[in-house]
Write a structure and sequence with these properties.
Oligomer: single chain
Number of helices: 2
Structural class: mainly alpha
Order of helices and strands: HHEE
Strand content: 5-15%
Helix content: 55-70%
Shape: rod-shaped
Number of domains: 1
């Protein structure tokens, strides 16, 4: 599932949980699914962040990108 699809599903689950129209068992199932999606999205973002923080220097070697403010 793509990142955007996971975020859409997460929003859907949150809306359903906030509506209070689910019984306890269903709420626990939806909560667990939401937490798994959060972890997957976080892992994806961390992987992408690592890729973005690498740049090819003049010698063709990868190096960490240093951001100065």
């Amino acid at each position: 599932m793509k990142f955007e699809e996971k975020m859409n599903k997460l929003e859907e689950l949150i809306t359903e949980l906030e509506s209070n129209n689910t019984d306890l068992e269903e709420s626990i199932t939806k909560y667990t699914e939401a937490m798994n999606l959060i972890k997957e999205c976080d892992d994806q973002l961390k992987t992408i962040e690592k890729k973005v923080n690498k740049m090819v220097n003049e010698n063709g070697k990868l190096e960490d990108l240093e951001i100065t403010s």
